[in-house]
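Annex B. Sample input.
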Amino acid sequence: MPVSVCAMGPRRRGGAACVSFGGSTGGDAGAPKTGWFEVAGDIISPAWTYEYAGRTCWGELCLVFGGDRADAMRLRGWELRRDPDATPAEASYDVRLAGSGIRLGDTWAQVHDAYPDTVVDGGEGASLTIRDLPWPGFTDGVGAWRLTGTWDFEHPHRAPADAVLIRISAGEGPEPGCC
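Annex B, continued. Sample output.
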C-alpha cells in the first residue's frame, strides 16, 4: 500500500512537499535504517534550529526529525537521495513526488516540465543544482535539489542532456556549516 509523507512548513507557488512510496524493488524491505543522531553542542555537527536531530531512512527516502529534547523530536523534513554506499542487495522503493510523479533518476527536462519555475544553477565543486523550488528544502552542502553532471559557467542555467535528478528535499534539516 502506498504511503505519503509531507514536510512541515509553508508551501510556495501551490506545490505540496509530499512524497509517496510503495513496495520494495528488492532487498530486505524490513525495518528502516536509522541514520545519525546528534546534539547541537557537538562542534562538528551540522548546525540548525533544534538542539537534537535524527534521521531514519527506507532506501532512498530519509525522514529528518528535530527538537529541543531527544524525547520531543518531530518530523521536520524529508529527502530523497541516491546513496553511494548502498549495495545492490539493499531495498529500493518506488518513491515519487505526490502530484507530479517525479522521482530520482528523472531527467532535467521531466523535472522542469513538472515544475516550470525551476532553474538549473551551479553548486559546490561545479555540481548541478536546481533553484527556485516549489517549496523550501535544505542543502546537503551542495544543494536542496541536485542533478548529475557538471555546471558549465559559460551556460550557467543549462543542464547536460543526460543530467538526472539525484537529490530532492523538503522542509528543514541540518545543513553543513562552514568554518
